[in-house]
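[step 3/7] fold_predict: job queued, chain A
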Amino acid sequence: MVGEEVHLQCQASFDPSLDITFIWSLDFRVIDFYLEWKHYERIMDREDSGELKIMNVQLRHEGRYTCTAQTVVDNVTASADLKVKGLPGPPGGVRVEEIRDTSVKLVWNRGADHGSPILGYTIQTRDFYALTEVDWRDASTSPTALDGTSVMADVVDLYPWMEYEFRVYATNEFGDGEASIPSMKIKTWDAGRDQPGALTCCCCKEMCAFVYECLITSVGNTLLCVTQCLWWPRPTLEATGVKMES
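[step 4/7] structure written:
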């Protein structure tokens, strides 16, 4: 598991009159004990042994370890595979496939489980008014619980006509993994207007605007007040019979 210490044994029989050297490699790359001293140590407490100690194991230390016992006349090798368990990797390909006024359909690809089955996924959102780059919030989804086999879900209870981006992270028995790269930013559709408010008129030079003072739209348990401006050429007195004040 990530963070633990691992010992790999390597012993060889040889002519005591000869010098012996033990060389360790990971996936055919020779380990440099001077540059990688924080994680690797070669223990030579016996002439016929070249034990490898791996400290604070990380996911990148997983692979095939090969020990080569070498003298001036011969060499012999032995290998062992090391599997490292840890937090799940980030999901990939997070994208929005359907956009509605208060919900979207989000799709993603499963990431690496790193030796422990994924128990579930969590979707997070960040909207236009996020104060910081790390201001992510857990989203409401349908279905509510996203198990380890999920690759899509509806994100619900969003605001209409609002810019959003999304990310996903996985959870296994060791905890929450790294979040995915955020999706492309999208904007939800404008909601239908249910209760138009008073209509007023103002004019400037050759243009007029009719303005709804307040349009009430229900979004979950929230009421939004929206102002809508519509412009067109200023009508003439002959066309309307109403004198328009500038």
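[step 5/7] annotate
Confidence is low (pLDDT under 50) at residues 193-246.
Residues 237-240 form the longest helix (4 residues).
exit 0
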